[in-house]
Amino acid sequence: MRTPSVFACASAALVLVAGALTQRSASQTAAPNWPQLTTELRPAESFAGISDTQIRSIAVFEEAGKVLQHPRCMNCHPAGERPRQTDQRRLHQPLVVRGKDGHGAPGMACATCHGGANFDPSRVPGNPHWALAPASMAWEGKTLGEICVQLKDPRRNGGRDMAAILKHVTSDSLVLWAWEPGAGRAPAPGSNAQFGKQLAAWVETGAHSPKR
Ligand code: HEC
Ligand code: HEC
Predict the structure, then answer these.
(1) Among 151, 153, 146, 112, which residue's Cα sits nearest to residue 130?
(2) Are residues 91 and 114 in the same domain?
(3) Are 15 and 43 members of one domain?
(4) How far is the CA of 28 from the centre of ligand 1 (A)?
(5) Does the pLDDT value for residue 18 go beyond 50?
(6) Any idea which ligand is nearest the CA of 199?
(7) Which of the residues 41, 50, 124, 178 could staple to 56 if both were Cys, CB 3.0 to 4.6 A apart?
């Protein structure tokens, strides 16, 4: 009599686990521009064999998209007023909002909790400039092609030309944080230097945007 009930228990547990998995993958597929986490980046030079410059430009940008659409960047470039957290990109808890200048609402400023550096014992990431990107720089919910067009648009990218964009992505301390995000958080794929070379190669080949 014991064996069947153990089986019943085990299969009930399996059903529960399967249910949880289905739910999880459903919530992950809900947003089409949330790709799987990757750790590697193809070096910019490895695209040199593509002779058509427009196709090469798009291919190398799509590779750089693994960084742009990684949770380390996307959590701070959300569609709404709230940042997201963790590799699962859940809405920030507790509830905080962008506020007037990206540093949070009065009384709930980012700096209340986010210090000048990562604080690993309580998993709080930190940086002296910690803030949410302005709404015009939101990437969440957009296709990589849409993000690309927006990135090139001075009316939405903070008035930057391409040289200023390249400088920002290789020197801004919030961008660099994505490769040193503190304990329990996956760093952005590859290295910042590789990412910088990819975007430089994209600009050199005409900064073309993916069609979708
Ligand atoms: C802690 C929050 C935070 C993180 C993490 C972050 N950003 Fe940003 N990002 C900002 C803020 C704030 C601005 C606006 C600052 C400015 O314009 O100088 C910004 C602006 C930008 C801009 C310029 C405007 C635009 O959107 O075209 C680029 C490019 C950018 N971020 C890229 C990245 C990349 C790439 C990553 C990940 C490797 C990243 N950011 C991670 C907060 C963040
Ligand atoms: C009351 C404390 C508190 C305040 C205020 C706060 N945060 Fe956070 N934040 C946290 C904690 C704690 C975590 C780490 C959660 C985790 O990873 O488990 C976190 C994580 C994050 C992350 C996730 C980083 C990643 O990629 O995993 C982002 C982005 C973020 N906060 C942005 C902000 C912004 C922007 C503000 C201001 C508008 C802000 N936070 C205000 C406590 C706070």
Answers:
(1) 112
(2) yes
(3) no
(4) 23
(5) no
(6) 1
(7) 50
Q: How far is 155 from 161, CA to CA, in rounded Å? A: 10
- Tens-place pLDDT, residues 80-91: 999 999 999 999
Cα of 45 to ligand 2 centre, how many Å?
Answer: 36
- What distance in angstroms lies between residue 152's CA and the mean position of ligand 2's atoms? 28
Q: Is 210 inside a domain boundary?
A: no
Co-location of 15 and 104 in the same domain? no
**Once rounded to an integer, what is the mean pLDDT over residues 106-118?**
96
Given the CA of residue 130, which atom of ligand 2 is nearest to it? 35
Query: Is 145 found in the same domain as 56?
Result: yes
Residue whose CA is at the smallest distance from ligand 1 atom 18: 158
Count CB neighbours of 196 within 10 A: 18
Task: Give residues (CB < 6 A) around ligand 1.
Answer: 67-68, 72-73, 76-77, 102, 130-131, 133-134, 137, 151, 157-158, 165, 168-169, 174-175, 177-178, 188
Q: Tell me what the mean pLDDT of segment 119-142 comes to.
A: 96
Report how far ligand 1's centroid is from the alpha carbon of 13 (Å): 43
Identify whether residues 132 and 90 lie together within a single domain.
yes
- Cβ–Cβ under 8 Å, residues 130 and 110: yes
In degrees and rounded to multiples of 5, residue 171 shows phi and psi of: -135, -20
pTM, two decimal places = 0.88
**What is the domain range of residue 95?**
35-204
Count of domains for the chain: 2
144 shares a domain with 58: yes
Two structure tokens written together for 134:
């302005």
How confident is residue 38, by pLDDT bands cut at 50, 70 and 90? Answer: confident
